[in-house]
Amino acid sequence: MTQAIRPRRALELSRRSFGVLAAASVLAACSRGPQTASPNAPLRVLAINHVWTQAISRYLPELEERIGRRVTMRMLTADQLTSSFNVKLNASATDIDVMTIRPLQDQMLFARNGWIADLTDRVEGDADYRWTDFQDAPRERSVTAGAAVSVPVVTERPALYYRKDLLEDFGGAPATLDDMLDIALELQRRTEGFFGFVGRGQRSGAVTQWSSFLYSFGGDFTVDGRSGIGSPEAVAAYQYYGRLLHDAGPPGATNMSLEQAMPIFAQGKAAMYVDADAIYSNFLDDSISTVTDTVGFAPFPAGQAGSVPHNIPSWSLAVNEFSLLRDDSWEFVRWASSPEMVARLQSEGIPGARQSVWDDPATLASFPADLAEAMRVNAANGVGHDRPEVMQVGRARDIVGRPLVSGIVGEDVASVAADADAEFNDFLVRDNRQQEF
Q: Cα(159)–Cα(157) distance, rounded to whole angstroms?
């Protein structure tokens, strides 16, 4: 009898022991505390492959000496960067410390998901850092839900690229949108393959450059939380841009983004072109441009509401919320966006976000003089977004771009804009629910 009972008791004791060990393991796991980085661990930067990143990488030994830690930088294309962020940040990965993000494309989603650190106390609490020295428009884009979660390092505005030799008889670059349309219509010889104007016309891809036309007509993507693309000002901007490309632009414009539009101007096949000022060097490169001696640069022309271009941070720095090197990560951001570094890089032709640097003529010497003046004027007049400020940016651009395409192909813009306006309002209701933090 006793021998028959012993195995059962042994099994019960075994089960109890296993339960105690399991509970102990859970308690041990919970008591380990936060992870810490090895003293020999490098500071890891995941960044866009961009002229800014390439330039800052040359100076990394300065930061390594300051923080006493090796810095590694991995550069990816925009698509590769997006894929990497989606995988790593969803997994709360700690092998990224600092990252370059697109504040108008990524920041709201990243902040909502808790992927990027709140830098408010650091940027505002460091008097030597001079947070208020950043231009208003880019600085405001660094804030989401009341928290500063990024720091702008590269800024961008539109530029009017034009042929000085062709516009000389018109008194130079047009100062108004009305003049630009008149000149484009007069100079176009579409049947001969020469165009008065070229610009982006692809449904989604054109929205960012069209934004400056929208603002200069007095409109915006949203007004008081509702769609603004059905307003009279927006409809007028759609109609204007549509006529510019329909009557004076190249065939197939609705399939053109930057990669297709830029070569048309670079090869001397258009009189005027509006696009990002960051691409100016393409027109000064003899290997790809035939207009190196004739290209001119001018501020964005004035519409009914004046000249109101965008002035945006195209790339910003953020700190991974899951980084084990948060203090050193901030030191990287602080160093890379300091007044001294911004001045150094802008002197090399990379436009920064600090007003003090733009006020220093020495930092603009690397740009053509007329481009530097155009950039300065556009920055002073600029709006800090070039697309709808929403969570689902891609879907919003697709909706907003529909009336733009209708104008280019000669359709009735007003009816398409009214339909898109209703669709965008429905979208904003859903998107606003997603934005709740």
A: 7
Ranges in the chain annotated CATH 3.40.190.10: 43-156+312-381, 158-309+390-434
Q: What phi and psi, each to the nearest 5 degrees, are found at residue 348?
A: -95, 5
**Residue 85 clears pLDDT 50, i.e. is over it:** yes
- pLDDT score recorded for residue 31: 36
Please calculate the CA angle 57-311-426 and round it to the nearest 5 degrees. 110
In this structure, are residues 207 and 400 in contact, taking their beta carbons and an 8 Å threshold?
Answer: yes
The highest-level CATH class for domain 158-309+390-434 is: alpha beta
pLDDT tens digit sequence for 217-229? 999 999 999 999 9
pTM of the model: 0.85
Residues 6+ away with beta carbon under 8 Å from 411: none
* 43 in Cβ contact with 98 (< 8 Å): yes
Q: pLDDT (tens digit, 9 = 90+) per residue, 370-429?
A: 999 999 999 999 999 999 999 999 999 999 999 999 999 999 999 999 999 999 999 999
- Class of 43-156+312-381 per CATH? alpha beta
Cα angle, residue 75 at apex, residues 120 and 282 outer, rounded to 5°: 100
User: In the 3-class helix/strand/coil scheme, how is the chain assigned residue by residue?
Assistant: CHHHHHHHHHHHHHHHHHHHHHHHHHHHHHCCCCCCCCCCCCEEEEEECCHHHHHHHCCHHHHHHHHCCCEEEEEECHHHHHHHHHHHHHCCCCCCCEEEECCCCCHHHHHHCCCECCCHHHHHHCHHHCHHHECHHHHHCCEECCEECCEEEEEECEEEEEEHHHHHHHCCCCCEHHHHHHHHHHHCEHHHCEECCECCCCCCCCHHHHHHHHHHCCCCCEECCEECCCCHHHHHHHHHHHHHHHHHCCCCHHHCCHHHHHHHHHCCCECEEEEEHHHHHHHHCCCCCCCCCCEEEECCCEECCECCCECEEEEEEEEECCCCCHHHHHHHHHHHCCHHHHHHHHHCCCCCCEHHHHCCHHHHCCCCHHHHHHHHHHHHHCECCCCCCCCCHHHHHHHHHHHHHHHHCCCCHHHHHHHHHHHHHHHHHHHHHHCCC
CA proximity to 40, closest of 417, 325, 320, 237: 325
**Sign of the alpha-carbon torsion through 136, 137, 142, 143:** positive
